[in-house]
Amino acid sequence: MAKGAVLGIRSAIRALILAGLLVGPVAAAERPGCKLESGPARGVAKVIDGETLELDDKSQVRLLGALAPQALDGGADEGAWPAADAAKTELEKLALGKSVELRFASRRSDRYGRLLAHVFVREGSEHTWLQEEMLRRGYARAYALPGSTECLQDLVAAEDHARRSGLGIWGHASYQIRPADRHWELLRYRSTYQLVEGKVRDAAEVRGRIYLNFGENWREDFTITVQPTNKRVFDEAGMKLTDLKGRRVRVRGWIERRGGPLIEIYHPSQLEVLPE
């Protein structure tokens, strides 16, 4: 190809980029299902822990969707969990002293007054999505809050890369996937975030609420539940929950005790139907 033609193509590409018509993979927040509201640009003055930043205006922002390791995960004393220290160090490498842009989902703050946002580091024309990087490198787990499930599908995909490769926390026994049929063990993880895997023994809808049971005695065995107000989201995603009887699934969420151990889900990305 002639030199002049090559230069012409490069000029056209630059023009498209400047016009916003050609978007590279760094534009993570524009992906389908990941629409966010633009927020302010700030500087990162301090990294508090593996999921929390302090900005140059003294506000604090929590990385929504990327759950950092905590001492509670391994039953350790606060401040004595190496996985938490490693996550904080990695976040410092990625963000400390840099300019960031905040983008908001449905919920903008938590009960402690911290901002809940997706955070993008600005370096020249590139934007690095902090949540995605922390997950992809194995320093966090993907999660969502009720009513703020934007981007969860993308975050789970980033986590999957690290988990399959055994990166970061995924090489540690405290973050293994838990078997659903060991309900007595799951109860020990009450109030912690877990990934649980097993075969659905029974699936039923009772007064609009969905129950997926993993044992003979629903009062003791592990259960997944979906409230009537959230069932529509699964229907729209083509996931008919009552058809999952006999299927092997993997679920993510916080373990509660309601008789036996239970995880309540509110978004399809929390539930993965595994191959036969």
Query: Which percent range describes the beta-strand content?
Result: 25-35%
Number of contiguous helices = 6
Strand count, sense and closure of the main sheet?
A: 5 strands, mixed, barrel
SS content category: alpha+beta
Poorly predicted segments: 1-32
Describe this structure as you would to a colleague.
The chain is an alpha+beta fold. It has two domains: 28-171, OB fold (Dihydrolipoamide Acetyltransferase, E2P), CATH 2.40.50.90; 177-273, Nucleic acid-binding proteins (OB fold (Dihydrolipoamide Acetyltransferase, E2P), Beta Barrel), CATH 2.40.50.140. It has six helices and 17 strands. It has a five-stranded mixed barrel with strand order 1-2-3-6-5. It has a five-stranded mixed beta sheet with strand order 11-12-13-16-15. A four-stranded mixed beta sheet has the order 9-10-14-17, with no helix packed on it. A hairpin with a 2-residue loop joins strand 1 and strand 2. The longest helix has 17 residues, at 3-19.
